[in-house]
Amino acid sequence: MRIFLALVFCALAMPASAQVADTHLIVITGVEADAADGQQFHKWATTVIDAAATRGGVVADNIIYLSDKPDADPARIKGRPTRENVEKTFSDVASRVKPNDEVFILLIGHGSFDGRGAAFNLPGPDLMAADYAKLLDKFPAQRVVFVNTSSSSGGFLQPLAGPGRTIVTATKTGGEHNDTLFPEYFVEAFTSEAADKNADGRVSVLEAFEYAKTKVTQAYQQKGNLLTEHAALDDGQDGKFADTLFLASPKARAASIAAVADPALRALLEQKQALEDQVAALKLRKAAMDPAQYDQALEKLLIDLAQKTRAIQQLEGKK
After folding, report:
1. The sheet that has 232-234: what strands, in order across it?
2. Residue 176 in contact with residue 230, Cβ under 8 Å?
3. pLDDT, tens digit only, all 319 positions of the chain
4. Which residues contact 287 (CB under 8 A, 6 or more apart)?
């Protein structure tokens, strides 16, 4: 009991930033059809990486990019996107993550489906959906976001689904094998205010998914083409879990709030963050609550959050 109490005391005495979860990003671009194809994959990949770093506060050590394309910053690319390097990357990240950390995986490229299983095409031997399922098993205590933006990616949904995971695919089946528009808009979501539907200054995985899905449908309609890709999301909770996940580091966010010099502003920011966490937790409990009680609780939290946001804006405006 004395040891237990000592451990609890130490945990409480630790700085808040040391206890906050962190985010790890893995971006993989696969085989290209031609040089222009590869340049587009690289542009999307670096856009996401830059958004994670600049807007999300994800540190460079927590970002791994596997690509065959040369980059203006050679240090950004950690290796070729071969089967061996992909497997090593998952193992390396698994050795460093803490419980409740977020692991965000993004695949950009081409996919295939042989009637039995789907694959993401790599230089050399491909990795099948079943292979990625085994790799995700390395993260049993983490929150996982796995996004496959390729053709035939729908074949990844069922093999990868599981507790604590959000799986996003550009197609709903392995049979949708045409090149996809989804990656362009999914990437765009993390740099667009239009994707932030609840105007909280952050774009959740669910918001990015819905933004991209809507944009894809509009693009096909504008060209008068039949929709050949139907994006899908599976988080086991009808999107409520995906709405609590972000391409951002909670640890960096907590540290930035702690660094605010004005104690009044810092207190407001901390209260706002606490309310956002309460909203996320409430959404996850929705299925087990009476609908009227849920709506009442959510309304109160959202009103409190709006008032807190306004108070922050007013205080910042005065300065």
Report:
1. 77-79, 63-66, 23-29, 102-108, 143-148, 165-169, 232-234
2. yes
3. 343 333 333 433 344 434 678 999 999 999 998 888 899 999 999 999 999 999 999 999 999 999 998 776 777 899 999 999 999 999 999 999 999 999 999 999 999 999 999 999 999 999 999 999 999 999 999 999 999 999 999 999 999 999 999 999 999 999 999 999 999 999 999 999 999 988 778 899 999 999 999 999 999 999 999 999 999 999 999 999 999 999 999 888 888 788 888 888 889 888 988 888 888 788 878 878 898 998 899 899 889 988 988 898 888 886 5
4. 237
Instruction: Using only the alpha carbons of the chain, give its radius of gyration.
Output: 21
**Tokens linked to 8:** 């609890």
CA distance 145 to 168: 8
In single-letter form, the type of residue at position 307 comes to: Q
Distance CA 265, CA 164 (A): 34
Bridge-based pairing of strands 63-66 and 165-169 is unpaired
DSSP state of 242: G
DSSP H or E run through 65: strand 63-66
Which helix or strand (DSSP H or E) is residue 234 part of?
strand 232-234
Strand-pairing partners, residue 79, are 66
Q: Which two tokens stand for residue 136?
A: 């995700």
Cβ-in-10-Å burial (0-12, 13-18, 19+) of 235 comes to buried
**81 closest CA partner among 105, 92, 65, 95:** 65
